[in-house]
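Researcher: Batch entry, complex prediction.
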Amino acid sequence: MTLTNSPAATILNRQQLKDLLSGFNPDPKGREAYAIIEALYPICRSITGEGVRQTLRLLQQTIPLIVHEVPSGKEVFDWVVPKEWNIRDAYIKDSAGERVVDFRKNNLHVLNYSVPVHRTMSLAELTPYLYTLPELPDWIPYRTSYFKEIWGFCLSQRQLDQMKNDEYEVWIDSTLQPGYLTYGEYRIQGLTDEEVLISSHLCHPSLCNDNLSGVATAAVLASLLDDVDLRYSYRFVWAPGTIGAITWLALNESRLSRIKHGLVLSCLGDPGLFTYKRSRHGNAEIDRVAEHVLRSTGHDFELMDFTPYGYDERQYCSPGINLPVGCFMRTPNGKYPQYHTSADDLTFVRGPALADSLFHLLRIIEVLEGNYRYLNLNSKCEPQLGRRGLYRQVGGTNNTGVEEAMLWVLNYSDGQHSLLDIAEHSRLEFSEINDAAKLLARNNLLQLIDPIRSSHLG
Amino acid sequence: MTLTNSPAATILNRQQLKDLLSGFNPDPKGREAYAIIEALYPICRSITGEGVRQTLRLLQQTIPLIVHEVPSGKEVFDWVVPKEWNIRDAYIKDSAGERVVDFRKNNLHVLNYSVPVHRTMSLAELTPYLYTLPELPDWIPYRTSYFKEIWGFCLSQRQLDQMKNDEYEVWIDSTLQPGYLTYGEYRIQGLTDEEVLISSHLCHPSLCNDNLSGVATAAVLASLLDDVDLRYSYRFVWAPGTIGAITWLALNESRLSRIKHGLVLSCLGDPGLFTYKRSRHGNAEIDRVAEHVLRSTGHDFELMDFTPYGYDERQYCSPGINLPVGCFMRTPNGKYPQYHTSADDLTFVRGPALADSLFHLLRIIEVLEGNYRYLNLNSKCEPQLGRRGLYRQVGGTNNTGVEEAMLWVLNYSDGQHSLLDIAEHSRLEFSEINDAAKLLARNNLLQLIDPIRSSHLG
Amino acid sequence: MTLTNSPAATILNRQQLKDLLSGFNPDPKGREAYAIIEALYPICRSITGEGVRQTLRLLQQTIPLIVHEVPSGKEVFDWVVPKEWNIRDAYIKDSAGERVVDFRKNNLHVLNYSVPVHRTMSLAELTPYLYTLPELPDWIPYRTSYFKEIWGFCLSQRQLDQMKNDEYEVWIDSTLQPGYLTYGEYRIQGLTDEEVLISSHLCHPSLCNDNLSGVATAAVLASLLDDVDLRYSYRFVWAPGTIGAITWLALNESRLSRIKHGLVLSCLGDPGLFTYKRSRHGNAEIDRVAEHVLRSTGHDFELMDFTPYGYDERQYCSPGINLPVGCFMRTPNGKYPQYHTSADDLTFVRGPALADSLFHLLRIIEVLEGNYRYLNLNSKCEPQLGRRGLYRQVGGTNNTGVEEAMLWVLNYSDGQHSLLDIAEHSRLEFSEINDAAKLLARNNLLQLIDPIRSSHLG
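Model: Structure tokens for the complex:
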């Protein structure tokens, strides 16, 4: 083959990602992701503060991500990086001195970002500061107040029902002071500088599916891809929701044009169906790839059109940014009762679900990586596949699967259609089409025509 | 707010149309429209003549429309304004001198536009001049012969069955002479000279739903809008069907480019579902607005694609005119048995149906008037709504309705999408989207970008 | 009428094709096509050789087609014209001298294109050279080996089951030598040089539906059209599958731009539903015409999108050729059990099915021929049809069918829409629309605007 050493040959001969998929062993990968969640679960995270730093430090055991610190007061588009919030302890004590609500038992008990307070109050005075879920009386809600300096406690309805008319000592030992917003980033250099963005929010405290599942899946995915020759460069971002994504976008605005595809990862550990929420483009390559991969599983799944609420796709898909970034989930936010409650705990997320999420992410990446356009070098009539040993010898029977895939690739490799286009058109799986294209290219019947830009090619 | 006195401020602060809708009281409005129909019902109208003039004179009690007279013989495109037809009396008398068919009892008895005749004829001789509905034997059909000079009588099958072999005196005291074609017009000046055309045919004699319902609804609508500050100018036309619309178009050809939207009104008093027949464009703004309004009612309704038969949309949507004019009806022509018979009388149309038609027309106008495009002035990421008091203080819960509407408006106000586009995209009601846009604009987060052309702005 | 002697008048006054359709008598036409199949059935055809020549000679009794001979070794795109194959006899004899497999009984018994062989072999040695259909044990399969020089026999499973352990004499008296590839062609000159291609493969031996049905239908169709004044020129090609179509395309490459529409004909004699397989364009005029004709029959039918396997549409629709050629069939290849077996015999195809196929082909041609664009010469409002005698005199009733068709033609004859566009839009049949257009054109209300290019117009 004359292609050896050329970029095209590099692409045609790459095998690592395929091996990664065929050798993917769900059990250890699910356990690895679950173990990360277990380690991160107790930490009290918020949009700023030590919880975020501690989380990123633990993730560095899986992937050597870089920690970025952005000072309070920094203007980022229409926003300002807020003060840093830290908390040591918090409780409501009754007159007998017993902690009836105790931050040390569950960090959800504090309204996240509460300003410090130390007062004695009657139950009636205290009640406006208490948040419960009357319809889910055993669970503690997760509530926040990032941009209004107030305080409060979250507790189960049962806890509240047991609180008598008494004088309570209320104590939140937090600080809200100039400091930093912290986020993590990891980049894998591919054959080209075109990037795939993988983003997950890490601001939620002890909540597993939303979003330690996304945080951990991203980390394991990064570690898997780290050893693989890739077409695209991959940029992983772990940042607090909303303000973190806005900060990252503001600081990286000049580099956004490199991002060709992206996914927000969240809610990936529950046992529900997969859900893909399309980018604002609606029909971007990432949208079509994700749909193709989910459709080829044979299982049910959900597709959602873009909406301007949800996770950080809100920011990535704001009209002035408008990146082709979708959101990959199992059961979406707000669609499971445990959402934003203490029931989103270590029993709600599962290793097998995490492994399955990882596997589907790898399949999405496989299609993205292989979705080139080729040109049929014998476009007038079919080439004679038989004399190249690519066609059955005895005719009169139906085409074989490989023959069909080759005929589809030859017929539609007219410079307009990518392999994904051909897979969709033929209703064959992308991997069949990709294999056929590589076989034809090795036989000099196809030529790779997508631009291959890279500083990494010798 | 810095917008005071600017055209944009004028638009944002307008409240009258909204008040008109929220204060709309169906009972008196339905009674008002019904009373107009009652007053117009006895008159024998045709495409020309005193009946039309008398009708327009009565309508002037509701709205000070202008009466136009176009002389017979005037060439209007491929047509010529016909002679003026007037009729005083008509009957068929039996040999005993009894009027067995009597124009004074119902003006449908005369074939509309019949030439004068006075003869004595046997029943056999007379029969070819008689029109009945054998399958609806109690009803008199409505028949016309505008462009062929013949005569005839319409009667119920029962009447015909009772006519014996006898000598009959046939008498039609009509004239067909050079005169005028008469139509009415009323124009409301809006902020801009761009016009909305509201057209109804008034040539039918004693037929209520087709089309005194359209004629009366248009008059009451004009009187309601007359006191309101409006974006568009509104031109109401009451003209005879076909030849009247053709005449009006021929005389106003140079002004047609001002017409941005239009509706033909007919069959608006029966108790059936609403029907909207799309303009020839098929997806003109008026088509989308009418569909949006009907869809948001929660009731069933019918949508029809354009067909080149029906009412005067035939002319407005002829290929060389091609205005974006749809047709707003309840049960369409030909789809109710009373259509074009004496049973389309004062018992067939109802005040509540007329009021409901009026209300929906006002809602269509509300959407047309408010369907501007805005530009998000903070298009990179979301603006911080919280510090402007536009967002809930405690997070962790789902977005409220207003927040969702604001997020949709912000995300899609990229210069491409109108508020109707955003309403359709978000599946929210136009009024929610419009309210959110005004709220954001008052907070300087959006800017109105649709051109505002007007000589009326100070 | 001022149009006499003009090309437009020629078109408007043509009546022959319409007469052909209205006078079409299915019985004799079905018998004629069936008789051709009967005559051709015994011949052992292949992609080259005397069988093809003999077939074309017999077809010349129906239509004076021209026989082309292309020498072996000729390069045609990626292929080379193969050696010519001829066969006189073949058998497997048992040790008692009895022909247990006999080419003279059915020419399917020989693997088509087998090289000569004369050997004595045990059953065990022979078995790898034998092809059967275990699941259809009474039928002989049709198998080929065009491009690999091997030999073999095809037989029913029952025959194989009866073969004992014995020594067999194997004899194939074939030759594979330099010679020619043979195909037939017939062209009918129309008003213009723009061509319609009708192609059928004639390489299959004793198989009736695939494809003597296509071969015979094409011949009868050519004979029917030969006497008719036509807009398009029609080029009929009878050639061996794949290599024949490739050869024809390679030799005629410079003339392909004249081909505006085309059909591959196959499997047209079975009693199943019609199937139309779209061209690669997917929405070419031929695709829309075929669908319109099939839809207007009121019977079920099948539509298939283009796939790059099937018949010679594979070549006509290869990306570098990309002609608008569909495939017209009844039950498609591979979808009936008799396909490519000895059961595709003279009992499987029927005269009435062949006649029905012919009739539908004529209707497709009728639409292609008549699908002009016209321009409404009175595009502002409707023209007054009444004074031209084209409209009913007494109004108040619904439009008649002819009036509706005229209104559709007038409204959409804006220079953009063809008559087929209008037929689809109005959901009327093409013939109704075409008749209305001709009536309007004769009344000078429409003008034919499609270019009429021809050397044949005086």
